[in-house]
Design goal:
Radius of gyration: 18 Å
Number of domains: 2
Shape: elongated
Number of helices: 11
CATH topology of the largest domain: Rossmann fold
Largest sheet: 5 strands, parallel
Structural class: alpha/beta
Number of strands: 7
Strand content: 5-15%
Helix content: 40-55%
CATH class of the largest domain: Alpha Beta
Strand order of the largest sheet: 5-4-1-6-7
Distance between the termini: 26 Å
């Protein structure tokens, strides 16, 4: 089997956990809405626009204020919008151990505010070969085009590229292109997956 030359990592629930329940509760407390009302307001079409960069700059805060009948200031919005992230510290030494041995890239459905917050929280990201962010590309997983863009950025063939994501549909989309994609569940399973891909090594 062909040697792995590049590894693509998702961000949310791989390198950093996100507690969407907490996000909804915090927004509900601030806006006087119930979590169910928030879910109805923050429908999938909104998230797709967010991920593809269609709500750039302050347009995202303005859109949420409109949908929620709120008047969130920029500092309030940023605190709420990023409140639900926790860095997955257990995986970072093992990701760092890949640097210099294979190309390491980020491939994330995200937006500028989340990306900026997490890049500050995870300095290791500055050492990745590329950060491929959906809002900058105007593409989002599971679109085939975003995986092709990632392969082009890595300069590797699909069979020489590994991909770790926590969403089964995204893993399957990558596999359809021949990428050696794996479903991320936890760090213990990740280490076994690295071994199976021929990438097992001690952290550091």
């Amino acid at each position: 089997m062909r040697r792995i030359e590049a590894v693509l990592f998702d961000l949310g629930n791989v390198l950093a956990f996100h507690d969407n329940g907490l996000l909804l509760r915090r927004f509900a407390e601030r806006t006087g809405r119930t979590p169910d009302e928030l879910l109805a307001a923050l429908d999938p079409s909104l998230w797709d626009r967010v991920n593809r960069g269609a709500l750039a700059g302050d347009a995202l805060r303005a859109e949420l204020n409109l949908r929620l009948g709120a008047n969130l200031t920029e500092p309030e919005f940023l605190e709420l919008w990023n409140c639900h992230f926790t860095v997955n510290a257990s995986i970072l030494p093992h990701v760092e151990g890949l640097l210099g041995h294979v190309k390491v890239l980020l491939l994330s459905n995200t937006n500028a505010r989340h990306a900026r917050f997490l890049i500050e929280k995870i300095p290791l990201l500055s050492r990745f070969d590329r950060l491929l962010l959906s809002h900058e590309l105007g593409l989002a997983k599971p679109d085939e085009a975003i995986f092709r863009a990632a392969l082009a950025a890595a300069g590797t063939a699909p069979e020489a590229t590994a991909f770790f994501d926590d969403i089964p549909d995204y893993v399957e989309a990558a596999r359809r292109l021949g990428v050696r994609a794996r479903l991320f569940t936890d760090t213990r399973a990740f280490l076994a997956q690295l071994d199976a891909l021929g990438l097992g090594r001690s952290p550091g």
